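Hi C.,

You asked whether I'd gotten around to modeling the 210-residue construct. I have! Everything is below, sequence then structure, no commentary in between.
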Amino acid sequence: MEQRIHVIGDSHSGEFQNIENSVIHCIGPRTMYRIGRDGLAILDFRTIGIHENDIVVLTFGEIDVRCHIGKQRDMQKRILNEILDTLLKNYFNTIMLNKSFYKNVTVVLYTVTPPTNNAFNFEFPFYGSIADRVNISRKLNEKLVKMASENGLEVINVYNDFADAAGKLIPALSDMSVHIKMECNQPIRDQMDKILCRCLFSRDSTEMDG
């Protein structure tokens, strides 16, 4: 039986919608911060329909970078690394709690995509310069990749595939807003295929051992 791919997140979950056997669960403009703060009240795999052997892709963090992290640093006089470490610690606590409800669910973390100044959103406005948000995005992604490896989680990191030399989202590859254009998501699909192959190999190996 094919493994079902559940993509859960903010609007960036739509960047996966043309991937075969995927189900998109866009839960609105939820932040990585809220996932960590509110836990199962916002993200509970069991109520979303996740089953054993499924793959879960989580797409949170872009709104945190766009609106909140730089503002917390400046207004609360906090150190950026401390903000990111606290944010990710709480985020991972919620993820690992969800994972603990299953014997075999593969969790994939989608890193934050390159920032842009396109399509100003009055509800979730940009904070800080584009260069500052590029720096925050890269630092957040670096820490997320490291923590994912330490916790046995998969990662899809396509930042460099969609960023220009300055680290900004390339307009031609975007939907002219903050998202990667679905027609240009081949790097995402390629990394997803590699994860699927690893999952299939692991499942086959387990069945042979049994």
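If it helps when you're writing up: The chain has a mean pLDDT of 93.

Thanks,
B.
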